[in-house]
Amino acid sequence: MTLRAAVPADLDAIMALERASFPTDAWSDAMMHEELASPHGWYVVDETAGRLTGYAGLRAVRGARDADIQTIAIAEASRGRGRGRELLTALLAEAARRGVHDVFLEVRADNPVAQGLYASEGFREVGRRPRYYQPDDVDAVVMKLDLRGWTAAQTPAADDAGVCT
């Protein structure tokens, strides 16, 4: 697995995975193109053997204290191998580099696997958006992460770094 920043040439491969992952509510090519080109966005792709197997996006306006995870998608054949967590971690690290304090996301209420991933990294449910995902009439679970707390948890303390006292 190789993670790298997405580039405009990745658009076709990203859109193929977008349509496969979100058949009823995939973003349009134009929307994704705008996301990839935006100075406020940061997208990363996961490649295996030269093939795009996942992508994820963050929207974090420079200087803002909050950011949004826009999307994470993993090819069906590559799921369950920790790739989603790797992509999520890359997004959170970029948000921290941008000085973000809180990260938000929406996840489908009928996607317990994704909700579990987010909860395992410290995201907590802060609300619901009824019938947000159309045309499926599925609620969005709104989740929030205290990024400063997450970042602190990722950094081992001096006592945990093998220092004897």
Care to give the gist of this entry?
With 165 residues, the protein is an alpha+beta fold. It has a single domain (2-76, 83-154), classed as Aminopeptidase (3-Layer(aba) Sandwich).
Features:
165 residues; 5 helices; seven-stranded mixed beta sheet; Aminopeptidase; alpha+beta
Kindly state the number of beta strands: 7
Counting structural domains, the number is 1
Largest sheet: 7 strands, mixed
Q: Overall pLDDT, averaged?
A: 92
Question: What does this 3D model show about the protein?
Answer:
Strands 1-2-3-4-5-7-6 form a 7-stranded mixed beta sheet, sandwiched between helices. It is globular and about 35 Å long. The longest helix has 15 residues. With 165 residues, it is of the alpha+beta class. The protein has one domain: 3-Layer(aba) Sandwich (Aminopeptidase), CATH 3.40.630.
Topology:
Elements (H helix, E strand, L loop, with lengths): L1 E4 L5 H11 L7 H9 L3 E8 L2 E9 L6 E9 L8 H15 L4 E7 L3 H9 L3 E10 L4 E9 H8 L11
Parallel strand pairs: 4-5
Antiparallel strand pairs: 1-2, 2-3, 3-4, 5-7, 6-7
Helix pairs in contact: 1-2
